[in-house]
Every structure is written in C-alpha cells, then in structure tokens.
Design a protein that fits this description.
The chain has about 180 residues and is an alpha+beta fold. The protein has five helices and four strands; from the N terminus they run βββαβαααα. Helix content is about 70%, strand content about 10%. Helix 1 packs across helix 2.
Length: about 180
Amino acid sequence: MEPASVVIKKYGNRRLYDTSGSRYVNLEEIAALIRKGKPVQVVDAKTGEDLTRVTLTQIITEDAKDKPTGLPLELLRQLIVASDQTRQEFVMWYLKSAFDAYESVQDAVQSRLGQMQSAILSPVESVKRLLSVPTQTGDREDRSELAVLRKRLAELEKRGKRAHSKKQKNRRRTGNA
C-alpha cells in the first residue's frame, strides 16, 4: 500500500505550506521528505495547479548551486535547445535510462556488499558454532564420547602404573644384588 502524499501548498508570496504537518516548510525540508521516500505533491494554493515538477526542478538547481557536481553543462544546454516535443521526449528518455542504469548499478553494488559481508561473517559463525553449547542429541553423543575417552584414559593410567611398579621392582632386585 502506497503511503499518502504529503501535500504542499504554494502561495503567491512563494511560501510553502505542508498541509499534513500544518507548518511552513522550505525547499530543503521538502527534499528531506523525498529522500525519506515520502511522496510529495506541490499545488498552487489558489488554482490547485500541480507544481510538483517545477518545485523538484527548483530543489535540484538550488542543490547544484552549492556543489560543482550536477548535470553536465552540455546536457543542460541540450535541455534548453530541446524545445520541440520529439527532442524533449528523447532527452527525458535518455535521462530516465541513465537513472535506471545508475539504480541497477547501485543495487548490484549493495548486493555484492551483502555477499562480501556474509562471506566475512561466515568464519565467525563457524567458530561460534564450534564454541556453542551442543544440542540435546549432540550432548548425548558428546557424553558417550567423553565416557569412552575417560575409560581409555583410565586404562592407559593403569598400564602406566603397572609399568612403573614393574620398573621399581626391577630396580629393587638389581639394587639388592
């Protein structure tokens, strides 16, 4: 379900009023709403005419003032030259294609980063599994294995004691002679 649009009314004095927040806003605040993924619609307060496209363009141009980045000058010139419908449609198609390509590259990068993160975490998860408390079934198996090892150790200790006592007896015999 798509969230409701935030309706901004633009008055003759160029003030922008957020009807959902009941407050005046500026272009930066509208840009912040858009960056958060909220759909925004800007309308003329008197006529109801949709001014969203003009306002978004204004946000882009205001943003470009502060930074040397933005649309290339030649592209901007071509947008101005593209006065007839066909050229304008081609430029809009070109911009949309470029943006779609940018989005798919961003998605691929995010996907790759996710794969790398899981690959990095994989050894950590393996160590955690080794150090974790065994499950009920694994616990029984571990106990039986531990019992076998204890039994084997006890047998080895007995052998060691027997061998040690035999050596002592042999020493006594050789020492008495």
